[in-house]
Each structure stands twice: as C-alpha cells, then as structure tokens.
Amino acid sequence: MGESPRPAQTPAMQPSFPVRVECPPGACTCQRELLLSQPGADQRILMLTREEEKKLLERLERINSLSDLEQMLLRIEQQLGVAIVVAPGSNEVRTMRGIHIEMPNMPGLCRKTRQSIPAAIRKGLERQPEIAWALLDAHDLFGM
C-alpha cells in the first residue's frame, strides 16, 4: 500500500472570530503574525478590531466613577486578556500625568493601542477629577 497524503501545512491558524487588520509593514511591532502562528496562543487581543477599539476608547473617556473604571479594566482583562494597572505614581501626583497606567507589551497588542488606551483613561480622569481623588484615596495617599 502507498502512503496516505499529508494534510497541507497552513502558515497560520485563523481564529473563528473577526480579527484586527494587520498594521502596515514597519509601522508596528505588535507581532500579530507570530501570535497567529502559535497553536494554543491566547488570541483574544486580536478581537479588538479598529472599530471595537474606537468604542472602547470612547467608553473609557466616559468613565463616571472609580468602580466604573475598575469594572472596565476587569472586562478588558476578561475579554481581551490585557491586564491594565492604574495606580498613583511613585512620586507626587499633581496632575493626571502622575497617575501610572501600565499596559503590557504582549504579542498582538498594537503599539498605537498601547498608547491610546492610557490616553483615554487619562482623558476620563481629567473629565471626572473625583475619580482620580478616589483612586488616590483607595491607595491611602490621603491617609495619615
């Protein structure tokens, strides 16, 4: 008997959900193709299409309380696998720039997205400064 034909090799496994369009070559270091080529890799971040990112940024700019911000950060982590840390900076906090927003550098997370999400959070904090005060208070910076 002869050998059975081998299945064709596919360069990248395509997820079953719509994925973000790749950035122009050289414009980003998101390593999208690397993420797509790894079997079993967490590809949830690729669900953040440009349209979905726009909705997310608008929603982050409209946060109305610390619990609302915390809920949004939890949903981002659950749905996209991105853990964002928002906390007072290690130095004095005089402006919203003193609030530390940490975004992981992970495969599939676009460079522009890593910049735009913290900017949207800061915009929301500037629009509602009482959220920043609640954040400072939650980290006991006003405590004695």
Give a verbal description of the structure.
The chain is mainly α. Helix content is 42%, strand content 6%. It has helices at residues 32-37, 50-61, 66-80, 111-127, 129-138, and strands at residues 85-88, 99-102. It has a two-stranded antiparallel ribbon with strand order 1-2. The longest helix has 17 residues, at 111-127. The chain is elongated.
Overall radius of gyration: 20 Å
Topology pattern, helix = H, strand = E: HHHEEHH
C-alpha end-to-end distance: 83 Å
Classification by helices and strands = mainly alpha
Average residue pLDDT: 81
Give the strand content: 5-15%
Number of strands: 2
Number of continuous helical runs: 5
Q: Strand count, sense and closure of the main sheet?
A: 2 strands, antiparallel
User: Order of strands side by side in the largest beta sheet?
Assistant: 1-2
Low-confidence stretches: 1-12
Which outline best applies? elongated
**Proportion in helices:** 40-55%
